[in-house]
Structures are given as C-alpha cells and as structure tokens.
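4.2 Preliminary Data

To establish feasibility before requesting continued support, the project team ran the inverse folding procedure on a target of 465 residues. The structure was first converted into the token representation described in Section 3, and no sequence information of any kind was made available to the design step. The complete token record follows.
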C-alpha cells in the first residue's frame, strides 16, 4: 500500500499496529487516537509506552499471535517485522490491507501545515528535541515525534495542534522517502546501515532523493561541514540554507565559542553578519553546538523570534540515553549512559567526556548488530581508544542472527588494554573494584547496555542484568 492515503480510511476506523510499543510506533498510535481512530496493537512485552497507550484508549496485546487480528480495517507494521510474523501473516490471509510504518506516517504528515523532518546519520534525536523545545517556547503547540525520551514532554511524543510537527526521518531501508516535509534538516551523512545500503554513494543518493521531496515553498537546512552533505546542495534544486562550524561559506554558524565550567559551550549564532542570539548551551560537545545552529537556522526560516530560539535551546539538557547522567556508582564514579553506536558518535561522545576534567574516562561498549560491527571494526577500535579504559560486551544482535563472521573479541583485541567480558554482572563487579571517585563510567551502545548503567547506580534494578 505505497499509495496509501489517510483519506482511504474514515475516522473511527480500526487500525492494528504490530510492534505498537516501539519508540516511533507509539507516537503514531497516539496521533491516530487523537484523530479519532480506533487503535489496537501488540508487542513482545509491556512497557511504559504500552501502558500509556492503554490508558489513552488503545487495546494492547502482549505477545504477537494470529488471534490478535480482530477484523481491523488496516494493519500497520514496522520494517523490523518479518513476513513470518503471525499477525502479519494472518492479516494477509484475511486480505486486510497492510501498510508499513513509514508509509502511514507519511500519510499522516499531510494533516499538518509545517512538518519538519530531522534526518542524518547522527544527531536526529538531539536536534529534533532541541527544535521541539524552541517551538514549545514560542507557544506553537507542536505535535512532537522523537526517537528518545525528552523530560519536558514526559516521553517520546506530544500531541498538540496540526500546524507544527517536528519528527525524525530515518534513512534505514529508505523509510524517509515516504515523507514530504515542509522543512528538512540534514545533520550529516556517513556510512551506516550497510545491511541495506550498498555503499556510501547509495546512502548519499537516498539523501538527495529525500531532500528533493521537501515542499517547494519550504526549505532544506543542510550542515555543510563535510563533503557528503555538500553533494545535496550540489544536486538538489529545492531551496536550501546551509549551516556549519567549519565551513566559512555556511549561511549560519557559531562564533565566539567558549567553554563554561563542566565543558558547557557558550557562543553566538550568526546568519552571515546578522547576529541571531547568544546561547549558553546545557549539553556538552561541539556536535551539539552544530545541532543548535541547525535548529536556529530552521526556526529563523520559520519566523520564530530569537528570544524563543535562545530559550528553547538553553532549556535542552539532553534526552534519555544521550549522555544521560544516571548518578554515582558505589565506587564513587559518575555514571553516564549514551546511545552512541557508530564510530563518529563514539568519538564525539568521548571527546566531550574527556573535556570535562575526570581522572579517567571508562567506556563499556556493546556493539550493535553484527553487520555494523564487521563493517566498522577498525573504526570502532580507533574511536574507543579515545577513552582511558575500555570494556567490550557481547554484540547486541537486534534483528540479526550470529553467523560467525565477527565477535566482540575481534574488537577488544584491536584496542590496547581493552577487556572483553560476556557477562554484564561480571563487568559491574570489575568496575566497582577498579573505579574511584573522580572517574566517569559511560555505558555505551544502542542495545541493552543501559541496564548495566542503571544497575551501577540503583541496586533495585539488579535483575536487569
């Protein structure tokens, strides 16, 4: 149903969602409920997201079984759902129309006046969160869909009006080609998801197609600090505005950058010679300065006043799993959890951590998927070497099965002094015995490694590891 339109199903129709507890699916489900649709859905386990949806009127099934398909008008599924899924198979057997998540979201975007997509290999959640807080500060009542939990909205989504919709546009399996935003922000382009994309040129071509879909009256906001994103500017006819910290030709940039105590940046945002505002950012890292400049450029294009740009950016203190401070371990070391699972993200996170004045920065890294680990083995080793001490956990397979091509040990032996352990409980004991006050422990990766971080700081969550 690639030609699916939300107009195809009347208000009050029943939509069943396979994987409803996912970070993106849950927000879409809430949007559908708000528009008057009957929503049911299933997931493999209950969570705060499924509980919240149940409270708001969705019928939730824990476990995915054919009998959960009870005469829906449409079934929605994620790209992670295989053809052997019992609910998807049952829907097809009953000749119920099925639609992939990105296609449904693309149809819903047409109900909003200013959908703003945030795309890029890295920084989507942070940038879309910053954007959301600016729009909230400007009292634009945005509906929000982000890929992480933002404290100020109490989760990963907010249902507001039908004017502004900031959302993340993921490139995996070309999902973002189903979207037609009013404004698109592109933070960066690098090799990733090589289980789908053939190579870097394939990825760049997809981003060129994506930015070509941006509304003719809208604009692409593109960071041009690297060659890959510059190819968008060279190949897309739609209107674009550029930003960056290193490229002197960028339309928007940061000047007079200094670091406050703790490594927090202060800087002025300029559009050419026009100063927009001064920012005292409350997250660390040069990459976050760049994200803030991109948001300012988008909001300036949308006519948001500088005072609200300043207020929203300064209210941002991070999202869950993005350099999230969890507390102190019993050893006295500070514990932070971070979602970084690509070499560039890892390097940026560790560079920021090293600027914060800790005695030692420890990182416990859980590689995410075998295909990504194999593709970037040397790059992971180089990036992780920026930490003082490195521990490697087993690969988190996600959608993949182990085929013997790569193991976490292959990564550990490439890093001087790195330690591999296949048991998170053993890693916890090792850290408690070897870290001290003044050290920083970062649990890092896109899988379940966050459970170790929680267990390091909260004995009640021991069962998580």
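Position-by-position output of the design step:
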């Amino acid at each position: 149903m690639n030609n699916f339109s939300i107009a195809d199903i009347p208000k009050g129709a029943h939509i069943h969602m396979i994987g409803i507890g996912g970070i993106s699916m849950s927000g879409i489900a809430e949007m559908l409920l708000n528009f008057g649709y009957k929503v049911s859905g299933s997931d493999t386990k209950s969570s705060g997201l499924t509980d919240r949806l149940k409270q708001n009127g969705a019928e939730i099934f824990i476990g995915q079984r054919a009998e959960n398909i009870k005469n829906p008008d449409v079934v929605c599924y994620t790209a992670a759902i295989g053809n052997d899924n019992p609910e998807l198979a049952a829907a097809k057997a009953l000749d119920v129309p099925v639609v992939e998540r990105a296609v449904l979201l693309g149809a819903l975007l047409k109900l909003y006046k200013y959908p703003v997509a945030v795309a890029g290999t890295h920084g989507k959640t942070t940038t879309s969160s910053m954007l959301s807080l600016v729009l909230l500060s400007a009292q634009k009542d945005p509906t929000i869909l982000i890929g992480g939990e933002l404290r100020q909205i109490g989760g990963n989504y907010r249902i507001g009006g039908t004017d502004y919709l900031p959302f993340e546009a993921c490139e995996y399996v070309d999902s973002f080609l189903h979207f037609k935003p009013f404004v698109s922000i592109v933070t960066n382009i690098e090799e990733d998801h090589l289980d789908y994309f053939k190579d870097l040129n394939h990825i760049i071509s997809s981003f060129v197609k994506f930015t070509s879909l941006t509304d003719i009256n809208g604009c692409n906001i593109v960071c041009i600090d690297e060659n890959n994103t510059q190819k968008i500017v060279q190949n897309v006819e739609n209107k674009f505005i550029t930003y960056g910290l290193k490229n002197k030709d960028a339309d928007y940039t940061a000047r007079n950058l200094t670091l406050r105590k703790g490594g927090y940046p202060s800087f002025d945002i300029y559009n050419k010679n026009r100063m927009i505002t001064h920012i005292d950012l409350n997250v660390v890292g040069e990459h976050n300065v760049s994200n803030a400049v991109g948001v300012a450029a988008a909001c300036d294009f949308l006519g948001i006043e500088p005072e609200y740009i300043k207020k929203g950016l300064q209210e941002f203190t991070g999202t869950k799993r993005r350099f999230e401070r969890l507390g102190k371990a019993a050893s006295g070391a500070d514990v932070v959890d971070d979602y970084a699972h690509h070499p560039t993200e890892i390097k940026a996170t560790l560079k920021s951590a090293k600027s914060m004045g800790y005695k030692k920065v420890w990182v416990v890294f859980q590689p995410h998927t075998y295909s990504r680990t194999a593709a970037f083995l040397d790059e992971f080793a180089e990036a992780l070497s920026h930490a003082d001490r490195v521990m490697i956990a087993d690969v988190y397979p996600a959608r993949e099965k182990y085929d013997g091509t790569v193991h976490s040990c292959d990564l550990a032996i490439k890093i001087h002094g790195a330690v591999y352990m296949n048991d998170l409980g053993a890693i916890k004991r090792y850290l408690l015995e070897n870290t001290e006050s003044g050290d920083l422990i970062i649990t890092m990766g896109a899988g379940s490694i966050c459970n170790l971080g929680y267990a390091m700081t909260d004995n009640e969550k021991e069962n998580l590891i």
